[in-house]
Amino acid sequence: MQAPRPLLLLVLLLAPSAGRAQAPVYDVRTLACSRFAESVRGEVESRFGAERRSETLGRDGVLAVRAAADSAGLVIEAWFDSLAVFRDGPEGREAPETDGLIGGRYGGRLDPQGDYLALTAPFTPSAMRDLFDFARLPLHFFPPLPPTPIEPGADWSGEGGLTIWRLADSTAAGGTVQRYRWVRREAWDEGVAVGDSTLVVHRSEREDGRLSWRGGDGPLEWESSVTATLEFSAGEGRSALTQEIRVRRLARECR
After folding, report:
1. What is the CATH number of the domain that holds 53?
2. 18-32 confidence digits (pLDDT tens)
């Protein structure tokens, strides 16, 4: 029998084995044209001088996502099909109209592990900007994924305070569901213009989440708890936000 040619042998050695574990990735197959139902509930505690304030925030909506292949990963176009927001404070409930944001396009690039580069964002009415930072919404919408396969019980740590654990798999009608947990920590300083002066704001965030993923289908559902604090320079104020986020993939694709 003729021996395999060197080039053919190299291809055979480099080709992935049918039984070899594959790392989950965001690609056209797992996102394509999809829709996600999101529900967010949060509590805000603020202090500015002697003033104290407590508020409850909420957001419920359906986000549509369209993905196309790109040399750096995916080109993403996303928009809200439906959206409702509210804030309960000492003055009562505020529920601004959301028509000005529905249908407005977010545009950016998403790499296979979930890092998002924002390129465009829709105009957000001022009444809604006071409730949520909609301009940053896609930055952490999709859960982070490990760049290499990890077995159940193992973990992977990356830069920026990110750690991902592989939990025990579960079974469903559509096949095996991989389950992951992640923790992400971030901190940074930024300047905020206030009148003729600029305040230095120290931001810190901690996110603890869980993801269900099925091979070939991609993300099925996830939930996360986020704690974010803002400390203003010279001890002029502090604001702390805790929020619970739940996202579920819908069966019907976007239009």
Report:
1. 2.30.230
2. 345 688 999 999 998
